[in-house]
Amino acid sequence: MPTDSLFRRVDAEGARTVEVTFDDQPLSVPAGLTVAAALLLGGVRQFRTSPVGGGPRAPYCMMGVCFECLVEIDGVPSRQSCLIEVADGMRIRSQQGARDLPFPQPEAVVMEVQP
Ligand code: FES
């Protein structure tokens, strides 16, 4: 859940804001930033959990390399929040563990073995 942010925008005077939600909680964040930067400024500290050990994860590189910033945006999972500009009305959700593949699973193939 959001807490006090350690980050401060230096040019925040008069900056335009947009309204988003993170895990159904409303947030007012500065416009013109990436989703990751906006959430960090909004006090969000956990963006997802590790699919391996369940540990908390948050943005690390802020340039599209580490994939620690994955979130669901407007229903689309595994978006790199450090590469997407925040927009008014975005519905952002944290990700818990591994995501399902977005592709339909193929039907099982039954093979008969001839004696
Ligand atoms: S913070 Fe590293 S890929 Fe987004």
TrEMBL record:
<dbReference type="InterPro" id="IPR042204">
    <property type="entry name" value="2Fe-2S-bd_N"/>
</dbReference>
<protein>
    <recommendedName>
        <fullName>2Fe-2S iron-sulfur cluster binding domain-containing protein</fullName>
    </recommendedName>
</protein>
<dbReference type="InterPro" id="IPR036010">
    <property type="entry name" value="2Fe-2S_ferredoxin-like_sf"/>
</dbReference>
<dbReference type="Pfam" id="PF13510">
    <property type="entry name" value="Fer2_4"/>
</dbReference>
<dbReference type="GO" id="GO:0051536">
    <property type="term" value="F:iron-sulfur cluster binding"/>
</dbReference>
<keyword id="KW-0560">Oxidoreductase</keyword>
<dbReference type="GO" id="GO:0016491">
    <property type="term" value="F:oxidoreductase activity"/>
</dbReference>
